[in-house]
Amino acid sequence: MNTVMLSRFQFALTAMFHILWPVLTIGLSLFLVLNEALWIKTRDPDYYRHARFWAKLFILNFGIGVATGVPLEFEFGTNWAPFSRAMGNFFGNILGFEGAMAFMLEAGFLGIMLFGWRRVAPKIHLFATSMVALGASLSAFWIMVANSWMQSPAGGVMRDGRFIVTSYTRAIFNPYALWSVGHMWFACLETSLLVIGAISAYYIRRGEASSFFLKSLKLVIIAGLVVAPMQIFLGDGSGRVIFQYQPTKGAAIEGHWKTNPPGSAAAWALVAWPSAQKQKNLWAIKIPGVLSLLATHRLTGRVLGLRAFPRRDQPPALPLLFYAFRLMVAIGFYIFGLMLWSIWLWWRNKLRPESISQNRLWLGTWMSALPLGYLAVECGWIVREVGRQPWIVQGIMRTAQGASRLNPGVVVFSSIGYLILYAILFVTFVLFFRRIIHQGPDLTLVPPHLAPDTPLVGEPPREAQHPLDEP
Amino acid sequence: MSAATHLLGNIWYGLIGIILALYVVLDGFTLGVGMLSLFSPTDARRSVLMGTLGSVWDANETWLVLLGGALFGAFPAAYALLLHALYIPIALMLFGLVLRASSFEFREHARNKRLWNLLFALASFTVALAQGLALGTVLQGIPAHHDHFTGSILGWIAPFPIVVAAGVTAGYALLGSTYLVLRTDGIIQERARRASFGLALMTFLAAATVTIWTPFLYPAVAGKWFGVPTLYLIAPLPLLAVGAFWILVRALRQHREVTPFVATVTIFLASFAGLAVSLHPDIVPPTLTVSEAAASPLTLVFMLAGIGLLLPIMMVYNGYQYLVFRGKVTTGSGYPH
């Protein structure tokens, strides 16, 4: 393997592992905000206990997210130095914005959110949690802006081998930006809803704290009814811009080889096996006319085929792209179906704490949905990043030009280091995750006073001066 | 090179200097406490040490993330050249940071905390050493041609970077021990106070060695140090550092709690300012200057609005977090379970 491939492997490894954690951080932090707000509004202690229970999972997840995120920011320099030098004017600037506006906000209020329950008033605590959630979501915004710009660069010119920004509005709000930010943010929400829903279903199925976890499951269903269809809409929009700005990617994910002649509609391959060598599908089951509709929303819209491009401009790993895309889409519809099934049960008044644990099929379906969001996110990453190849910045710089000229040995060294570290992190996470689930929520937890005349701020008593001052 | 680029480049050189200084001091004491925890005799005491970090370590590390992003945007050529040249020290630092963050989180959930405490301490050591090696390698000079790295990827294996690494590690440990004097009491505070003397001596020796060695590496630096008027600009800094060392040792003898940490921070800031002034106008010595590495004026202005203006706000809310958790830490940290 050459250095470029090794650096690509390392980036894929570190990015695909990292993305597992922020998706839950983003969604779960909003869920914590919701529960804290509901507690302050309704004074129902169960919402407080929910906030405290899910915060345990949040912390465990957050730590790994932070730990694995830092290397990414430096990998652009270590492994992609020519790319960084050429594109830093915009790309580096945006990463800097992420650090200043998002990451710092998240970190600056995290301590209060985690340890501050007895040190600040509940409303200040809610504010701190909200800032953590806002920081996490802003982080997704800036990262997706930077990534979108690599897919559909805009707002500047290349001068002396460097990208010089001429319009920040056009560079930030590049053609992909809003679709991509929305699609990723909703992916975070949907993945988190599935995790919260699956864990809640697990406890209900075991008959433990059924009414307590029915509260969280019902919140998830309400949110899911909005999030799941919205995500399908955003996915469709994100797909259509691909055919406009990255026709090679669009053709690759659909196994589409020949441009449809004017006046005719392009057929859509439901399943196929695309072969780069033969420049066609080895076999395919096609549905006439559908691809034009999907890609352009017009009956006979023109969809460029892969053969319209020289092979050196075509993405690699065509079957991977083809099936990763299909798996992602299938998961999106499956989750929507699950939400419809759930609301139907609710509407028929079947979601009652005393009887719900008997619907084992429904609860089991919820439990098995836990990894689906993650799987869809990884598939989406493959579609987006492998589909962009052979470009590092679409149409402007090739991936091979963007890679640092390093001895392959040092890249092997760092890749193996990450591989070992991340394997340890994953196994340990699973062990502690199981422990948190085994311990379950503390249903006897007494919330701090909400009455306005209770002294909450100011000097806490001496024995409460350390972080162990929790009930 | 336009005047705008020159001016904006130098403003950003200053801002990145401030961010780097904040990172070095804040994560310096965090790493220092981490390293010192290796020498704690019991896990209970080690837990108190970790307790002083619980609410702040993540925010402290975040200054490094901000530094990376700001350098990438404001000086893309310097970011690319530095990280390429420092591939191995940076990789070691990142491994250490990954391990430090995760072992800190995992120990909160673990019943047997010994393993995670140990990993936390070892990771802190790795990060401190790697950062020292990186600094030493940069001071030694990064060979480049047209902004592209032309040196050896093993350039950090040399006497000068190793001395610098020893100095940075001892300095971080000193920041850590004086921070513990500030934040703990009883036996833990007393042990930290005693350790501070030796660490101060080690830091002083390493800093003095580096200060004497550096002008021999660069004629340009020597010219500045021994030329007029730059001499008058630079000379107060080593004097300030020596004065701070003297105050530090005296304050430790007098069992003061706040002064040792303040004095140590002063030593760091003085040394840091000395380096920044000596290297300028180079951002990556000996070939890449601030103006050459700077991004376009529009980018630098845009970043000034987006990051420069936020910097004071970041300091305020980070300061608020310190305020909420002020006071002595007497038992081990724990996330609420």
3D structure, described in words:
Chain A is mainly alpha-helical and 471 residues long. Chain A has one domain (3-252, 317-464). Chain A has helices spanning 3-18, 20-42, 45-79, 81-115, 122-151, 168-172, 177-205, 210-245, 247-254, 290-296, 318-347, 360-368, 372-386, 399-402, 408-439; strands at 156-159, 162-165, 268-275, 280-287, 391-393, 397-398. The radius of gyration of chain A is 24 Å and the shape is globular. The model of chain A is unreliable at 453-471 (pLDDT under 50). In chain B, the strands form two sheets. Chain B has a two-stranded antiparallel ribbon with strand order 1-2. In chain B, strands 3-4 form a two-stranded antiparallel ribbon. Mean pLDDT of chain B is 88; it is low at 333-337. In chain B, 55% of the residues are buried. Chain B has a single domain, classed as Formate dehydrogenase/DMSO reductase domain (Formate dehydrogenase/DMSO reductase fold). Chain B has 337 residues and is mainly α. Chains A and B meet through helix 3, helix 4, strand 2 and helix 15 of A and helix 3, helix 4, helix 5, strand 2 and helix 14 of B.
Gist?
The complex is a heterodimer of chains A (471) and B (337). Helix content of chain A is 67%, strand content 6%. The N and C termini of chain A lie far apart (56 Å).
